[in-house]
Specification:
Helix content of chain B: 25-40%
Mean pLDDT of chain B: 64
Helix content of chain A: 25-40%
Radius of gyration of chain B: 19 Å
Strand content of chain A: 15-25%
CATH architecture of chain A: Alpha-Beta Barrel
Mean pLDDT of chain A: 94
Structural class of chain A: alpha/beta
Oligomer: heterodimer
Order of helices and strands of chain B: EEHHH
Order of helices and strands of chain A: HHEEHEHEHEHEHHEHEHE
Strand order of the largest sheet of chain A: 3-1-2-4-5-6-7-8-9
Low-confidence stretches of chain B: 6-13, 62-77, 80-84
Number of domains of chain A: 1
Largest interface: A-B, 46 and 48 residues
Number of helices of chain A: 10
Structural class of chain B: alpha+beta
Amino acid sequence: MPSVSTATRAAKAADHDRKCLLCEHRCGVNRSAGELGRCKAGTEARVFRHRVEYGEEPQLVPSHLVYLSGCDLRCAFCIAEEKAFDPRIGTLLDAPFLQQAIVWGRERGARNLQWVGGEPTIHIPAILRALSGCRDTPPIVWKSDFHATPEALELLRGVVDIHVADFKFGNDTCAERIAGVPRYVEIVERNLLLARESADLIVRHLLLPGHFECCFLPVARWLAEHLPEIPFSIRDGYLPRWQARHHADLADPLPADIGPLARREAALLGLNVVG
Amino acid sequence: MTARRVSRQQVRADDECTVSDIRIGTDGRVHVFGTSREVLEALAAIGVRGDAVRLRLAGASVTMGDDHSPSSARATRPPDNQPS
């Protein structure tokens, strides 16, 4: 049966359909009335792909990933490209669809249900509505850019079992230039500390070419100081996608020696490197 | 900020639920997006270096039952339409 907390949270989350403060753009638009904020999402969420995957962190696989279209950021290197940014793409998410998908995933050995995007935060009301109408939901993994507001994270408390946070940039200059987002570092750092109060947490960092000193090291050093025990997943599979060709520093694949170098550095800092 | 009206147009994506995207760099590194168990097993069979494949297959073997054979997983598509 659906948990009381999920149904309660779904009702509370509906406030954001009328004045959306789910992400730190804080557009405040009335999505129920058809207004669009930065992410261009309405009140419906759409699934553009879902499947059981094995490429996640070892402690998560097999994981049933549900990809929702629409995102609050515009990272130039996004591998989902246009699907991430157009919230009109995909099949409508509702309880009957999700229930069927949960059964399908469980039959194929999925240990959990992982919400990804795009960015699931912008669809919290629709996700909670769908979840509250489902039975026997698996553990919930929330893979996010962590550009959420504290109000949004509060809606997930008791609903999400594991947060997987993308800590993409180690400074605001890179974040502004590559993803078009201000105040990035303080927002993500605040949210990491909030999220770990209510759920398990994995921090993920995609190594970007030419961003070892400016992004990887500041991220690793902050984690070493504040969250050293948290699993830290260093991803070294960067390939130039979407708009990356417009950024000279992002136009080439990551050099092969950077991944091992980053893992050695993280280990020296005492971080719990996984994946 | 300026609000705009929602477009009624609905756009349907191509179905990618059963596709893994594999790219092999000129330096020989293999990049996989949307990794299935079968893809992991194929990579293990050809002897891909590193721990990434081994760790994930090890994790999967703990939780996968007998009914999750590669053939059955390959043969069945995930539900992609809203049930009636």
